[in-house]
Amino acid sequence: MSRKLAGTFDHYKFGFKTKTQSVFKSAKGLTKKKVEEISKRKGEPKWMLEYRLKAYDIFKKMKMPKWGADLSKLDLQDLHYYIQPQDKPKTKWSDVPKEIKTAFDKLGIPQSERKFFAGTGAQFESEIVYHSLQRDLQNKGVIFDSTDAALLKYPEIFKEHFGKIVPANDNKFAALNAAVWSGGSFIYVPKGVHVDLPLQAYFRINTQNMGQFERTLIIVEEGASLHYLEGCTAPVYSTESLHAAVVEVIVKEGAHFQYTTVQNWSHNIYNLVTKRAHAHKNAEVKWLDINLGSYVTMKYPAIYLLGEGAKGETHALALAGKDQHQDSGTKIIHAAPNTSSKIISKSISKSGGRSSYRGLLQINKGAKNVKSHVSCDALLLDENSRSDTYPTMKINENDVSVEHEATVSRISEEQLFYLKSRGFSEEEAATTIVNGFANPIVKKLPVEYALELNRLLEMEMEGSVA
Prior knowledge:
By secondary structure, the chain is of the alpha/beta class. It has two domains: 24-299, no CATH class; 413-466, no CATH class. 24% of the residues lie in helices and 35% in strands.
């Protein structure tokens, strides 16, 4: 049965619902037969069906994690695991079904594509419904397609990399994704090609009690560069839905890559994802991670610095409101000498919300001359809110330089008094302080994303000060 979730849905502007007529919608629950059905409907090769079934067996054997957020209300048999919204992805916005197009029009997807991006993908339910890429990038050999299409169109490169960074036995939800994955982005950037404008993907859950399991695979070849952005929203329902994505990124020698996520799920979503990047010699990987919504988030983007001279950098911002738990962080593993990393994490807790930083910095034996800096800052807006920090450092080499700092603070009466003396209301003063706290992260976003995030923070702050 559906479980009703507590939560406040005020101010969530993306909570509208869209009436659609799906091509196919699986019944609730997960069985071996349903895994086989997903693969059959997609026309997949035999090896992928075998991969899915092996992952399904792993999923059944693994227990639910007990070490992070409370997942006791999540009923995995009360979800629809596959919903096909249309017959096939479109390359012209005008060809997308009217009701789906209306939903994405409200989110500003086609307008932002024309203004700011080199290409856009839009996923609705279980499938990519629209994909585009600038012609000049296509001519340079750049591939930006749905992961489903890439499996069939680029079988050799797909099979070489799929499941190699995040294997099915990594954790229970990675196993679940491997069994029922659908949709997601496949990106291939050839050697020496620079994608000057970002590529964007947008993921929308529309149906109640829906499970979305996109699989993203990105390969950036030697000396190339890419910036990939994704955004996520869902309607507001009183029962739970699940988002359990897997992202695998391979950044070859001397390449540069940035992954930017702005996730603003509605407060009935369990956001349980696994995201991981491999950085080879002299490669650079940056991860910019923003988490505003969801009922529960468990997300720890990881960077493995595998080649000498590789660099990894993560900047994260999480906001936890009433009945929310944002359990997030970063993992960086130094597996080669002369590598460097930076981890910057900021969290804001309000109205009794809970934020947790859960991070890992690991330096392997032989990884000499490593430099790393870790900074975790938490801001509490009231006495009922909570912040936890669980930093783990495993340093197995002596010739390293590691810095770690962490702060937990509340909005000071002195700051509020000063701003109020300048004509601010108490709520305006608190919002200004929060924006200043978040600004080091926000300013790293593209301008149009930063403006939107500042508006979202202002909306979240309405009514937060008694």
